[in-house]
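S1.2 Input.
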Amino acid sequence: MTTSGRVEPEFPLFPLGLVTVPAEAVPLHIFEERYKTMIGLCVAEDRPFGIVWLAEDELHRVGCACRVEEVLEQLPDGRMNILARGVEPIEVIERQSHLPYPSGVVAVLTDTPETPDLALAAEARSAYRELVERATGRELEAGELAAMSAYAMVATVEFGLEAKQGLLELRSENRRLNLALRLFRAAIKRLDFIDLAQTRARSNGKVRFG
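S1.3 Output.
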């Protein structure tokens, strides 16, 4: 992974079994002492921290810098319920162990220069609009939709960790839009299948295949 942008040492890291993308809202329950210390510092100093996917004892190098948007609950023993939000992708260059919580040297990842694919963007946003309307009944306004990046759209849908990690590692908005479009289309197909199954279930009490 090629890094670019600013490099920050002693960046607080939160290895978790989840993947976060920029613009995504993430509720977290903070209960371990080291993370109570870390998040307490981030809140007090308005500092970001990085969520990095820990999968089967393997820590992925690319994660997402997040900020604490709101402390939802502060318990007497220091435990916290917080709402964090993804800000920007980062890459862990080196792990550090001298602080009372996990940290590392990280680089902020920026995209490679490219010409925006406007047709692809329109297609991805159209598929996203259809998915949201089918799943929630909500109709997105044109202005709201036009301002949404691939990250912003994917941040509102529950996709698998591998898919979200793949999106996070792409350094091209065009490529992210292409992946998002495929994810939206696959989700719409699943909704079509669910609709068909429910229709059949209502008609005869069973879902039949073939």
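S1.4 Remarks. Residues 173-204 form the longest helix (32 residues).
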